[in-house]
Amino acid sequence: MSLWWAVIATCVGCYLLKYAGLAAPRKLLDHPGVRRFATVVPVALLAALIAVQSFGQGFDWPRTAGLGAAVVALLLRAPFLLVLVVAALVTGLLRITGM
After folding, report:
1. Which of 61, 67, 71, 46 is nearest to 95 (CA)?
2. What's the pTM?
3. Which residues cross the membrane (predicted)?
4. Rg of the chain's alpha carbons, rounded to an integer?
5. Which residues contact 92 (CB under 8 A, 6 or more apart)?
């Protein structure tokens, strides 16, 4: 039964956190520091997620090469869908060849 209390507490906490964001005064949301924070945090969270998913289970050469190919495609300003395809192709080809 304690698991259900944890699930309920988490749901209530998430709801209250969401409500706090919606109930924040407009003056607070228009502050330049809050705007800068809201712009930078998603990028940092995405980078952390990529790092954990890429290297959290040990070093894997094909996965790392695919990530590198994705970075190169991004630097060349390729569309996001093409970046995903390039990363998948590089990773897949390296896995098929056994590298």
Report:
1. 61
2. 0.58
3. 6-25, 37-55, 67-94
4. 20
5. 62
